Amino acid sequence: MGWQILHLSQQAHLSLKHGQCAVDFAAGDSISLPLDNLSIVVLESLHITLSAALLQKMAANGIAVFVCNETHTPNGVLLPFMQHFCTTKMAFQQIQWSAPFRSRIWQQIIKSKIKGQSAVLRQVGFTEAAEKLKLLAEYVLSGDSANREGQAAALYWRTLYGTTFTRDDTTPLNAALNYGYAILRGIIARDIAATGFIPCFGLHHNNQLNAFNLADDLIEPFRPLADILVYQLHQDQRLADGLTPDIKAELLNILTQDVAYNQQQKNLLAVMLDVCRSLASAVENKDPKQFLPFTYG
Questions:
Q1: Which of 40, 53, 58, 286 lies 20 to 30 Å from 147 when distance is taken between CA atoms?
Q2: What digits encode the pLDDT tens for the residues 140-192?
Q3: 39, 60, 78: which is the final residue of a domain?
Q4: Which are the contacts of 272, defined by CB distance < 8 A and separation ≥ 6?
Q5: Sheet strands (E) in the chain
């Protein structure tokens, strides 16, 4: 699996030629990309076609293929299937998670998420609110039974965007956040499948209509990566025209940055996979302490 991102927003046909991803644009131009270099393909245009042979090779190479809806927002992703050498064993362990195990893992996830939100606030100059969130993170209980996540979110969004802001509004700001989250969620879902887990069985999220409950669990500490970029775009008044191609490209480039994880600087795509692997280790050894969530900042 490589680290290259292919983002297509115009009419084209993708096929497998000489073991590579060939892109033939309707305008007449063509490019060819080695599959080993690709990690993510985003198909934004509704006028893109692909061959089944290429899709099969993309799945075999663990390439996440996103499709977008009429609003150009990712609404589907192709995931690798049965790539882990002991997928069935991992799946059986997953559905047998004990309530205490799930609660301890969720506690770590929420602690990391709130710490990351604190780092965002500190980075943009809201030091007093940042300290409040940092303290709040220390009081997250097992299973977040006191709902510190909700308390942190209320302070976090109010501090960033004012008391009238809500995440339910249809605005360019929320569209940018949703785009960034959708990309992060899709990659987490891919890595969950590649690690042997079944994405629909979550630790905390358990919506029976949601095929990505576990991805929605593990994405939480990664959200601040999108939050800080979208805040900067908002402050620079670059979201007035909505999700332009340039804005989407910047949001996609979140995945290419290096971040601190487990006392190392690593590419974010590698970190996401490492987080999923640490969960697998915690599951196999029945030890929540072996789970190492990402923390921004």
A1: 286
A2: 999 999 999 999 999 999 999 999 999 988 899 999 999 999 999 989 988 88
A3: 78
A4: 187, 188, 191, 222, 294
A5: 4-8, 12-17, 20-25, 30-34, 38-43, 48-50, 64-68, 74-78, 258-261, 264-267
Provide the token pair at 198. 């079944």
Tokens of 40: 């993510």
Whether this prediction's pTM lies above 0.90 is answered by no
Question: Cα–Cα distances in Å, from 236 out to 179, 192, 232?
Answer: 18, 35, 6
CA distance 80 to 195: 10
Could you tell me if 134 and 127 are in contact, meaning their C-beta atoms sit under 8 angstroms apart?
A: no
Question: In terms of domains, do 109 and 256 share one?
Answer: yes
| Pair type for strands 12-17 and 48-50 | parallel
- CA dist., res. 19 & res. 38, Å (int): 13
Task: Please identify, among 17, 50, 78, the residue that sits at the C-terminal boundary of a domain.
Answer: 78
pLDDT by residue (tens digit) across 244-277? Answer: 989 999 999 999 899 999 999 999 999 999 999 9
**Type of residue at 64:** A
- CA 106 to centroid of chain Cα atoms: 17
Q: Which letter, b or e, does each residue of 217-256 get, where b requires 16 or more Cβ atoms within 10 Å of its Cβ? A: bbbbbbbbbbbbbbbebbeeebbeeebeeebbebbbebbe
209: which 2 tokens?
């209509």
Task: Let me know whether 111 and 209 are in one domain.
Answer: yes
Helix-helix angle 87-95:268-285, to 10 degrees: 70
